[in-house]
Amino acid sequence: MSTILIIEDEPELVRVLRSYLEDAGFDVLTAYRGDTGLLMWESRRPDLVILDLNLPGLDGLDVAREIRRNSNTPVIMLTARVEETDQLIGLEIGADDYITKPFSPRVVVARVRAMMRRMERGQELEKVLQIAGLEIDEQAHTVSRDGQQVALTPTEFTLLFEMASYPGRVFSRLQLLEATQGTAYEGYERTIDAHIKNLRAKLEPDPRNPVYIETVFGVGYRFKKEKGQV
Ligand code: CA
Fold first, then answer.
1. Which of 44, 96, 155, 170 is the most exposed place for a label (fewest CB within 10 A)?
2. Last residue of a domain, which of 120, 151, 170?
3. What digits encode the pLDDT tens for the residues 109-140?
């Protein structure tokens, strides 16, 4: 059974989320403060974390950074305002997804399920892509460039794997969003740009002149096709 840790200081919200997630078959841990939440994450190592942005004790951003420093556990951020979302991804804290309040608990369950499916699928398939000096191991969820490991968040990994599986094929933002979330929510497409920016910063020798992930203006992105490749 997969374990979800909810770190959120609104008791009613925690109660509702816990109830929906338990009904969906998840084991649920809860913490009402950032600092205690982080301790619980360290001791229990849940499979996924639902993390509020504004928390007493330790801010959600700091909690996410700490988690990301030590693992690639998927993190779904809960935010009160849409304006905060750019900041979330822009700060490269490595949140994999975010949901703005108020939200339907069903949406949260759907996103959690989608993310868990991706993780499980990654574990089942033994697939290693070797392309353009990159080695992308879907099972281990690791990427190396010229033998050097590149640390990516689960979302960045999914984007890279999706595109690198079909070099030259153009993906729209909505398609990429769907690949990362299991479902596509219109209006959220621009978050893909932030993820791509972070991905390039980690992957590309010169992020301003990307050699792996190309922008296709007005459409989306594609993984560059190697010379001679059909
Ligand atoms: Ca809060």
1. 44
2. 120
3. 999 998 888 777 665 555 788 888 899 988 78
